[in-house]
Amino acid sequence: MLQGNPFVCEKSNYLFFFSISSVRNLDRSREDERRTKMDGSQHPSFEDYFACQSVYNILGNESDLKLSDFGFEMGDCVVEKTAMLNVGEKIHAYSTPVIFAMGILGNSISLKIFLSKNFRRQAGGVYLASLSCADIFALVFFVMTQWLKRVWPIFTDSRVTPVVDTDGLCQVILYLSYTSRFLSSWLVVTFTVERYIGVCHPFKRLEWCTTKTARRGIVVLTLISLVFNSFKPALSGVYMLDGELTKCTGNPDYHYISFILDSVYAVSITLVPFVVILLLNVMIIRALVKLKRRQKTNQVKAKEAGGRTDFTLLLLMISFCFIALKVPFFVTWCRQFLYSLHLQRDTSGNIDNINRIEIIKGILNITRTVFYMNYATNFFLYSFVGSSFRLELKRLVCCQCRENRSYSWTPQRTCMQSDLSHGETFNRNTAQRNQTVDDV
Fold first, then answer.
1. H or E element at residue 239
2. Could you give the C-alpha distances from 180 to 28, 71, 222, 275, 316, in angstroms and in order?
3. G-protein coupled receptors family 1 profile domain: which residues (predicted)?
4. Which letter does DSSP use for residue 162 in this model?
């Protein structure tokens, strides 16, 4: 424990990348005296602060890049916070439950719609149903559990999170969290590949862009995700820290291996999909521009391609939202990680470095909250862009309204039977987009 400073570091059994003993050997008294003369107050020395920061874990993340697997948690040090850090923590604490509730509701409605008769026959409906399912799992096993880990100690003064810090459930939650996030990212990639084939290689569309191919691809992707992420439960568990505190974290005996594998995982769900999606979308946009030029001289084909273009625009929006919501968090984390490496070699004791760390942490909390929105916004994209999705949503709502108005115990037509009487009208609407069954 560090004495004589307005913060307390409660855990110092080992540090990130360097030992605390080497830090304590620096001449701190001279630096403290200099700071006292400057403003008449006792500031923490930079060496003490950074020692605590190392235990505090510069990222403190139970997020994509799991430096917390080194055994350090966010609540292990209590420090004086900057305004940016306070703002970031409040945004994260109060916005996450709203994102969670909206995401669960929106993805549940989307899943029901994409499993309907009109969508499950189409490759696009199969992909989008799978994405909705993956996002629900990510919201439950990643977003909510991370919120509990970060906010529960603040509300209850307890450093142990129920359920999350229970052996057995700890490994299951981590495994499902990693698997669902991997699937969510790579399902967006498969969307982009499917649209790339449909737009840039239309003659191969009937061969590759089918429901059978989509189901096979999803099964293969799920198996890859289960195998690829099997390292997480194997290297994690509930371990005792400081002789009394038990936390769901990485095995201290394999902290370096865990860090390497978690870094590979983070790159695989952010940077690699980002590059693939960006390159394919550029080629898709180029093909759409060429198609639009040809449509000016062929109005018939323009009508046939209209709905297909709508569906492609929807997938472009999903792809770009993926980039816009995920990349800022990844970039901020990399910025903080690289800055931490700089601080390890900096012995100047500049107090500005301390404030800069806290500012980056505040930004990291904000971008983390934006990152969570990736799992909750697709429903609004579908509703905004997809005409067929809006039509099916309207049918679902009207169907529910008719069922709620039915008070008689006598047998009545079911909602599906009632919809059959309107089938010709619905079919006439969809027939106008016959060439674009995948229009959402």
1. strand 236-241
2. 47, 24, 9, 20, 22
3. 106-382
4. T
Which helix (H) or strand (E) segment is 216 a member of? helix 211-228
pLDDT digits (tens, 9 = 90+) for 260-308: 999 899 999 999 999 999 999 999 888 888 877 776 666 544 444 444 5
Buried b (16+ CB within 10 A) or exposed e, 204-242: ebeeebeeeebeebbeebbeebeebbebbbebbbbbebe
Which structure tokens are listed for 291? 């198609």
344: closest CA among 329, 332, 357?
357
Decide: pTM greater than 0.85: no
Query: What is the pLDDT at residue 379?
Result: 93
Q: 371-397 in b/e burial notation, b at 16+ Cβ within 10 A? A: bbbbbbbbbebbeebbbbbebbbebbe
Backbone dihedral region of 361: left (phi > 0), alpha (psi from -120 to 50 degrees) or beta?
Answer: alpha
Reported confidence tier of residue 27, pLDDT bands at 50, 70, 90: very low
Domains and CATH numbers, the chain: 82-329+343-384 (1.20.1070.10), 392-436 (no CATH)
What's the farthest any 2 CA atoms get from each other in the chain? 89
Model confidence at 97, pLDDT cuts 50, 70, 90, reads very high
- Quick one: 298 exposed, middle or buried, by C-beta within 10 A (0-12, 13-18, 19+)? exposed
